[in-house]
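Standup notes
- HV: blocked on the assembly model, inputs below
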Amino acid sequence: MSPEDDPQIDAPAQAEGRGFARWLVRGAFLLAAGAALWPGWDRPALAALVPAASPLVAFSALAATWTLEAVGWLGLAVAAIALVRRRWFCRWVCPTGLCADAAGRLGRRAGLRCPRLPVLGQWIALVTLAGACLGYPLLAWLDPLAMFAGLFAPFGPRLGPVVWWSAVGVPAVLAISLWMPGAWCGRVCPLGGMQDLLAGVTGAVRRRLAGVKDRAPAEPDGWHALQGRGSDLPVTTPFASLRACHSPGWRMARRAVLGAAIGGVWAAMVRAARAAAPRPLRPPGARPEPEFTGLCIRCGNCIRVCPTAILAPDPGGHGLAGLLAPVLRFESDYCREDCTRCTAACPSGALVRLTADSKRLGAIGLPKVDMGVCLLGDDRECFVCRNSCPYEAIRLVFSEVEYTLTPQVDAGKCPGCGACEVACPTTPVKAIVVAPQ
Amino acid sequence: MNRRDWLRALGLAGAAAGLAPLGRQGAAGQEVDQASGFESHTVAGRTTQANRASPALVGGKVVQPQRELPVLNKTDVLVVGGGSAGVIAAIAARRAGAQVTLVERYGHFGGLWTGGLVLLVIGHILKDGKQVCQGIGEEMMRRLDKLDGAIIDRRPGVNPTVDAEAVKYVMVEMIQEAGVKVLLHCWGVDAVVNGHTVAGAVFESKSGRQAILAKTVVDATGDGDLLAAAGAEFEHRTHNVGLVSRIGNLDRVDPQQAGQAPKPRHLGSPTPVPGVNWVNLHGPEVDGLDVETLTRMEMSHRKFIWQNVQKTRRTPGYEKVYLVETAPQLGVRITRVLIGTNRVTVAGVKAGTRVADAIGVGGAAGGSHGEWQIPYGALLPVKVDNLLAAGRCISSDLRMADLVRLIPNCFVTGHAAGAAAAVAVRDGCRPRDVEVAKVQKVLRDQEAYLG
């Protein structure tokens, strides 16, 4: 009998008291996370803390870039504790888990039960980490903390149908949990799976140190650990038939190899496909394109903290790999000279932390002028792009041949802030448009 | 015969020539050439120029001897420059009760608006379509509205285009109605100064070098000629110097043939005259104060304009297009810019800074942003007294100068300078000591918009 079929599993009598304490603690964390993500705050770095607490995000960023932003150490700390306290994060902290639990209770009350499922979460985590090693963490955006952050996207300055898409993660988790109580946290969640993998490593090491034979009792999987019980219960793995003849260590190794293979091939395919697709404008500090779409966990933090609302989730116009990743549009405003909020709010390292000075060095893009549209080509008295440039990067050069002025952009000075594009008076097409480099 | 009598005689002769129909007996005592119908008479026979003070070559250097200048008149407010800023400054000061003399270098009013053929009235409308240029400038526009063929595109949120001749006519009408004393063909060349205090200005004209004494002087020369002469601090800038032209018969372009070849460049924009476009020209960025440069620009642009129209005429369908005229005035955009006690800056405009001493509100080119207030201090030199700047030379930073120099914004600063000069005269104080609230009241009474 699998644990999911056990009607008593969510309410063991001895866990009642501790359960209440957990609800309280997790409730407090949920409120804290919500407050950190609330758009009214002028603290983008606080917003970064929430998704950054995920070890999956931290490991992916580390593997993909071989660097770690300061905020990434939070995820590593969570991972370190998970090595010894299995699934402690799910039980005591995870705000998405709290919501999923609440939904699961309702589902169970309605008589719904979870069917047998493979440990998808571990596979997702493995595939993602393997992809990350190749510079493309494939499914990091399934991270529950990223989804929780995405929930706040509609409260930001930018609205629209695509913003609502960014917020569907948590409602989807709730729906899964309602329909199949316990399935998300126990089987699907990559953060849970990641913790199981970490605990698996500890278990293997511990057994080896203790000299236990390979045929030792199986390691309990995430679901049991989540419920704080059942090291004596049988394990559910994707390869149940093989379970009998292989130790947990073997299973771990096999999963790792298979996951790495799948993740590697997949990441390579996505990277190849990305290279052909047109690259949109990304926020300042964005890593080079294939890496960026892979590192970005779609938490929506950058979109929400952007004071000029020029970031929006990509509705999919630039290939599937970039779906819901932030794209930059200079429709109504430009990227302010002194603002680096999006980079401060990024938990995954997809956006490199910038200062106002370092932002000037890396360009978002470079403006291109269409003299067929530009008013100067028509001898009109327009000096708007030159005069609106905060960096004095545009010169209007007189051509003796054409006998007119042409805007010329100094690529060394221009950070691609889009002030010229916003100010350009031509409609409906702007004569000067910042193009990705 | 002294100079005044000579002038009077010249004026009489001119009036007689203008009024007397051909062949009719002229005024009593004048000789009439019956054969041709023209008349002419001698003002002074066999004479030499009185009061000569020609420079002499002294040791290889040209030295101007010291001399006394005749004082043409004394006035309350002297406005130097009859462009869009100067004309409105003169009307504003006169309507506010001051005696006003306006001197203009060319034979017409309007400066670059008319003589420069910059016919597009751009810079008075904001992003949301609101018009910020009101007051006497708007009154002028309303008079143009009433004339046939004087102005087109007068709709909310749109930049209208005027006819230069209509503007010249309306300006004469308004100046005369206001009762401003006018001297045309008079080039203001120097300031009369007492230390740091301006007491008038000096002019060159066919009547020679003369002075006008005034309690307050408004520099509406565009180039800040008087500011520089009086010793005020300024920035000397370069900008694009072009030459506007008008081309005609665009209504006779054959649309069927015209579609076959690429459309010619430099066709310009419509004017109130049917089939006639005005063609802007940017020109290179040069020093508009350097006479050699101005000469080079004039000749180079003239050649280009003629050759370009010929090129246009070789384009199928455009054979009948012709060059109506090139502008009498070179399109000098920015030269000297005053360093005032305050300054219009991009940073201030971006931040939406409100100023207590606002004497006007500027608009945008192409309606690209919101309104910006112009502080009184932008018209005031730091050290020099009794002198106010108006028009494109008021104190502004490099970028705002491109908005300050636009015609409606010159209306606004001209209006403010005229009102301030009149208040200074009325209160018997220096322009820097006037109560700005009083200037603001005069401006509001004259229907200006101050934000």
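- HV (later): unblocked. The longest helix of chain A spans residues 248-276. Residues 1-15, 228-245 of chain A have pLDDT under 50 and may be disordered.
- Next: hand off to the docking folks.
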